[in-house]
């Protein structure tokens, strides 16, 4: 079935996050020669940039590289809540990993919040940082028990919180829990300050430089797509999905999920605070200031990458919620983000495997990257500097919590196998010539499954839809105009270039007969 991208005239035709559109970021050249540094950091999001900042302050010579532009990945597409309230999670953590580990998870994320708060205050960083209470609310009788259990978990862990039956917003609410004294900010204004500090202190940053492999050893070498090498003592994989697996089998221990955001100028006033619904489909709310007025960020509608309904329907559902709850003056922005979820919902941060003491990984933030990404940078800094860190055991990627990890490992990989088989057996009847402008679909080309998109000018872009990671068949993402893998979350542009890993190689371009 062919899909038009937008059925409503209120949303922008193309996705663009407010954060990226509201700030001029510095640009950096491509790496064109071999270099030698103490630490090579791959990925220019909050983890990589914060790690580069922290290590540079310790006197470590760093080079940070990004496959595209810095701050254009998940960090550039966040809702930027700085909070230890990560959905309903603490009751689950107590049940699965114990009260002590659950408390460490809270303390790690609270420490990250305090680190950001202190850095902003001490350096007078102009990044729209505001203190906000964070709410989890429900209007579902089925979820009241879950909210109650979560509040009990808060009390056990000593989390500063209150239980209420209503919120300051016009949200239908039967119960809510409030984590006090959390925060929000403009993530790119904050990180742009760190970038400026890193470069002034002699740290190197390279854009459009893709890392594809690591030569192991006492002094590992990061290999780029262009064949250049970074010789270093330490490698930090902060590239969202690990660019290098190191036999850690990360593709089988995480799944990718997408979620959606509208930037809305509302008719009703937004009084403040950060909100997340307990029930599905998720509704996430916060505001930011835009040209002197509030822009309300309304998010949610999460699903596994490459699976489910036409992606544009998720934007439309958020639009309907916005209109019903607040009224809409204008929707100047829409965007989506991709996040990775681990088997036990705790990120993997530390040595990529136990046999690679100088290669580190930070991944699996489960949509809560502002605190988890900061935690990752602080933890890896301490591991490199041989400092004690109370959270190293909690986050170590080599951990295995039997329950729920065994069950989730089987479930996730059975899902991969199902989609791998379904894609191969799918009967495709569509033809490229049937596409209208700005339509994309799975089609048949030369008797085989292919992906076609006809752009606004009428030109066809046809690719082989077999994912270059492990051979699953891709699906068309109408909301973002990408080809997405339902197995491990790789994403490709209309011309076949890699947008998100784990895939490293582009799709094969095809020509219709």
Count of alpha/pi helices:
10
How many angstroms separate the termini? 21 Å
C-alpha geometry? globular
Low-pLDDT runs: 1-5
Report the radius of gyration as a whole number of Å: 22 Å
Q: How confident overall, as mean pLDDT?
A: 92
- The total of beta strands comes to 27
- Percent in strands: 25-35%
Measured as a percent range, the helix fraction is 25-40%
The chain-level structural class is alpha+beta
Main sheet: strands, sense, barrel: 9 strands, mixed
List the helices and strands and how they pair.
Layout: E1 3-4, H1 18-21, E2 35-36, E3 39-42, H2 46-57, E4 62-65, E5 81-82, H3 90-97, H4 99-123, E6 130-138, H5 141-157, E7 161-164, E8 175-184, H6 187-200, E9 204-206, E10 211-215, E11 221-224, E12 229-231, E13 234-237, E14 254-266, E15 274-277, E16 283-290, E17 293-304, H7 312-325, E18 328-342, E19 348-351, E20 359-363, H8 369-384, H9 392-395, H10 402-425, E21 439-445, E22 448-454, E23 460-464, E24 475-477, E25 482-484, E26 491-492, E27 498-500
Parallel strand pairs: 2-12, 3-4, 3-13, 4-9, 6-15, 13-20
Antiparallel strand pairs: 1-21, 5-8, 6-8, 7-8, 10-11, 11-12, 14-17, 14-18, 15-16, 16-17, 19-20, 21-22, 22-23, 24-25, 25-26, 26-27
């Amino acid at each position: 079935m062919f899909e038009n991208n937008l059925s409503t005239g209120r949303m922008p035709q193309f996705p663009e996050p407010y954060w990226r559109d509201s700030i001029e970021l510095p640009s950096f050249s491509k790496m064109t020669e071999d270099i030698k540094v103490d630490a090579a950091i791959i990925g220019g999001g909050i983890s990589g940039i914060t790690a580069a900042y922290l290590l540079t302050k310790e006197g470590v010579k760093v080079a940070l590289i990004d496959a595209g532009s810095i701050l254009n990945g998940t960090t550039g597409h966040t809702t930027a809540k700085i909070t230890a309230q990560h959905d309903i999670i603490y009751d689950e953590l107590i049940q699965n990993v114990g009260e002590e580990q659950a408390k460490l998870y809270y303390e790690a994320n609270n420490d990250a919040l305090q680190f950001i708060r202190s850095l902003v205050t001490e350096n007078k960083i102009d990044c729209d940082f505001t203190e906000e209470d964070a709410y989890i609310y429900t209007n579902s009788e089925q979820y009241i028990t879950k909210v109650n259990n979560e509040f009990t978990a808060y009390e056990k862990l000593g989390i500063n919180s209150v239980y209420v039956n209503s919120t300051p917003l016009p949200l239908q609410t039967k119960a809510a829990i409030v984590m006090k004294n959390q925060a929000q900010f403009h993530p790119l204004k904050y990180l742009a300050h760190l970038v400026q500090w890193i470069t002034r202190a002699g740290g190197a940053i390279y854009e459009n430089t893709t890392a594809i492999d690591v030569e192991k050893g006492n002094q590992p070498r990061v290999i780029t797509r262009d064949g250049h090498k970074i010789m270093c003592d330490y490698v930090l994989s902060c590239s969202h999905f690990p660019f290098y697996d190191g036999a850690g089998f990360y593709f089988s221990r995480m799944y990718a999920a997408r979620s959606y955001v509208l930037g809305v100028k509302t008719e009703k006033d937004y009084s403040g605070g950060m909100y997340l619904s307990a029930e599905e489909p998720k509704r996430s709310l916060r505001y930011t200031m835009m040209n002197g007025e509030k822009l309300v960020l309304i998010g949610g509608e999460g699903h596994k990458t490459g699976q489910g309904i036409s992606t544009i329907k998720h934007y439309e559902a958020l639009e309907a919620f916005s209109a019903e709850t607040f009224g809409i003056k204008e929707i100047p922005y829409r965007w989506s983000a991709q996040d990775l979820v681990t088997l036990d919902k705790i990120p993997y941060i530390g040595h990529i495997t136990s046999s690679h003491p100088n290669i580190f990984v930070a991944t699996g933030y489960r949509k809560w990257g502002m605190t988890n990404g900061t935690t990752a940078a602080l933890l890896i800094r301490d591991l490199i500097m041989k400092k004690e860190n109370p959270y190293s055991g909690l986050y170590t990627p080599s951990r295995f919590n039997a329950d729920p990890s065994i069950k989730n490992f089987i479930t996730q990989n059975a899902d991969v196998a199902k989609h791998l088989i379904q894609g191969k057996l799918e009967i495709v009847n569509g033809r490229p010539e049937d596409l209208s402008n700005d339509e994309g679909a799975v089609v048949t080309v030369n008797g085989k499954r292919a992906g076609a998109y006809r752009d606004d000018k009428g030109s066809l872009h046809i690719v082989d839809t077999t994912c270059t990671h492990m051979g699953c068949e891709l699906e068309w993402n109408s909301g973002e105009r990408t080809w997405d893998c339902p197995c491990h979350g790789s994403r490709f542009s209309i011309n076949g270039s890699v947008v998100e890993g784990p895939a490293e190689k582009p799709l094969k371009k095809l020509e219709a007969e």
